[in-house]
Write a structure and sequence with these properties.
- The protein is an alpha/beta fold.
- It has a single domain, classed as P-loop containing nucleotide triphosphate hydrolases (Rossmann fold, 3-Layer(aba) Sandwich).
- Helix 5 runs parallel beside helix 6.
- The longest helix has 16 residues.
- The protein is globular and about 50 Å long.
- The chain starts with a strand and ends in a 12-residue tail after the last strand.
- The protein binds adenosine-5'-diphosphate and magnesium ion.
Length: 234
């Protein structure tokens, strides 16, 4: 069966600094993400992984290149298009959760415009294993629990694509594994996942692995030996 590319990144360039200090965070990067991929982008610190994910998530502007998502080049979007894109098309999960600490779990999950349905949010909080924690504040939860709140918030958008930047990077091994298992389940339910990590073992649960170095893609592999999240050890 022909695989459908839902994200097509072409010739993407992002630089920081100028003159002598100019550096290429992304140096002509091209990648495809296929529908229902569990794609891992693997690379050492500073290789450009977060920059690439932030460009796809429209968190920051590119210098040049194109990023077609579901057929539309988001690089050409105006501010209004970008707001709608961030709200509806992409879910984002960060290493340090990015929860608002002065509001409850429930309020965090329904934070986005268009995500205000509390019944639905309650179901999602239950879905990520936090039933009964709706009125807790983030500081009353463990890191792993906070990350699961962040995942519930992302799922509440009902977007087709979930971008995860080192989602286990701030967690102990046991909580990290629970988060990976949750992402595996979400993938099995039909979502396309792009997960960035510097941990090679985590890549073994992906169906495709893209490796980056110095702002460039150095390899694209199909993984014929997909390992269950419960079996990943790092
Ligand atoms: N806001 C920024 N200003 C200057 N340099 C940056 C900025 N963001 C990233 N960089 C640089 O771009 C390169 C890639 O960074 P990043 O995408 O964060 O890598 P990774 O996520 O793989 O660790 C690094 O050399 C980093 O220092
Ligand atoms: Mg990073």
């Amino acid at each position: 069966m022909e695989k459908k590319a839902i994200i097509e990144v072409r010739d993407l360039v992002k630089t920081y600094g100028e003159g002598e200090g100019l550096m290429y965070a992304l140096n002509h990067v091209s990648i495809d993400v296929y529908e229902h991929d569990f794609l891992v982008i693997l690379g050492g610190s500073g290789s450009g992984k977060s920059t690439l994910l932030n460009m796809i998530g429209a968190i920051d502007r590119v210098d040049s290149g194109s990023i077609k998502v579901l057929g539309n080049d988001i690089v050409k979007y105006n501010d209004k298009d970008l707001t709608l894109y961030r709200r509806n098309t992409i879910g984002f999960v960060y290493q340090f959760f990015n929860l608002l600490n002065d509001i409850t779990v429930m309020q965090n999950v329904i934070i986005a415009p268009g995500s205000r349905d509390k019944e639905r949010a309650k179901e999602l909080i239950k879905r990520v294993g936090l039933e009964g924690k709706e009125e807790k504040f983030p500081r009353q939860l463990s890191g792993g629990q906070q990350q699961r709140v962040a995942i519930a918030r992302a799922l509440n958008k009902n977007s087709e694509i979930l971008l995860c930047d080192e989602p286990t990077g701030a967690l102990d091994d046991a909580s990290g594994k629970q988060v990976l298992q949750l992402l595996e389940e979400i993938h099995n339910e039909g979502k396309t996942i792009v997960l960035v990590t510097h941990t090679r073992e985590i890549a073994s649960m992906a169906n495709r692995i893209i490796t980056m170095k110095n702002g460039q893609v150095v390899s694209v592999e199909e993984n014929d030996h997909i390992i269950k999240a419960s079996e990943v050890v790092w």
